[in-house]
Amino acid sequence: MADFSRVLAGPYCTMLLADMGATVIKVESPGGDDTRQWTPPERDGVSTYYLAINRNKHSITLDMTDPADLQTAYDIVDQADVFVENFKPGSLAKFGLDSEAVAERWPGIVHASITGFGSAGGADMPGYDLLAQAMSGMMSITGSQDGPPQRAGVAMFDVMTGMHASIGILGALRERDISGQGQHLEVNLLSSALSGLVNQTSGYAAAGNVPTRLGNDHPSVYPYGPFATADRDLIIGCGNDNQFAKLVQHLGMPELADDERFRTNSQRNAHREELRALLEEALSTATADEWFERFRAAKIASAPILTIGEGVEFADEIGLNPIVEAGGPDDSVPTIKHPVDYSRTPARYDKAPPALGADRDAVLAWLKSRQAQGEHANVAY
């Protein structure tokens, strides 16, 4: 896989595929991927942002304005089944790596282009996640009801776009097994955002509904959010009437399940504040941790609100083993494990995120060996 992407969406996509066994050559400019400089935090002088999304890759630096380096770029793509890039639309044409040129020279390759707002009317817009959070409407529904719009605490649409790109690549490779032909995929942050907003965007598309901010409340389900206890908030979720009946039974108020104000989800939605007051009065008799243990034993959906560190530690406590070492004994780096557990082909963590250009000699030697054997992946002759 020829990975000409940088920052988050593209590198996250290619790391997921590298974890699954793809050979990924990360092509960087001499200045390197921007995230190498995004600190704090850092580990041994290296940005943890960069470390999060670049394991299992081989780094080579190329200045594509230099003819020799541009030829090396072509040589890398020659050997690739997949070419991933997130350059500004149109900017690769001068290097002969635009979609039309790639399709002509490498007809069997799967070429994935990742942009912020597509290659048509939004081609001039920078591909920053925050812009997609703003323009998708996500920020308009995030935050307290009487407060300002709020961004998410992570670049969620970059991550989502990376996942969509990896799904698209795998689908295109499977189709190539049938047709023998590659194709060009376009993935953008705004389309991923609108898809990922699911019920909110569907409500507008199908019913003309424009949702507003509800703080931590769900627009369609209640109770579903944080509720005050004796010491701090606890998340409680009731997705149906039976779950609500079970909740109020364990709170010592079984009669609420038959109360006409709360008997159905629509009725609970219509009487939210009345119900909140009753639930929080009962919850005030114990701490969040005490209620969580009781509800967990009763299989009632609940969760304390944890810090990132506590969340990782909880995942470890329940056997999810969230931290894995990427690399060997001399260069291992703690990273968050691949999100899928495979029964036969587990994700690999063979290679630590590479230093800038660290694999240049190895990549060039590999290319020379392949060329000497006359091996090419998708070149048209």
UniProtKB/TrEMBL annotation:
The keyword Transferase applies. The keyword Ubl conjugation does not apply. It holds the Pfam family CoA_transf_3. It comes from the Bacteria. Keywords: Transferase. InterPro entries: CoA-transferase_III_domain, CoA-Trfase_fam_III, CoA-Trfase_III_dom3_sf, CoA-Trfase_III_dom_1_sf. This is Crotonobetainyl-CoA:carnitine CoA-transferase CaiB-like acyl-CoA transferase. It comes from Enteractinococcus fodinae.
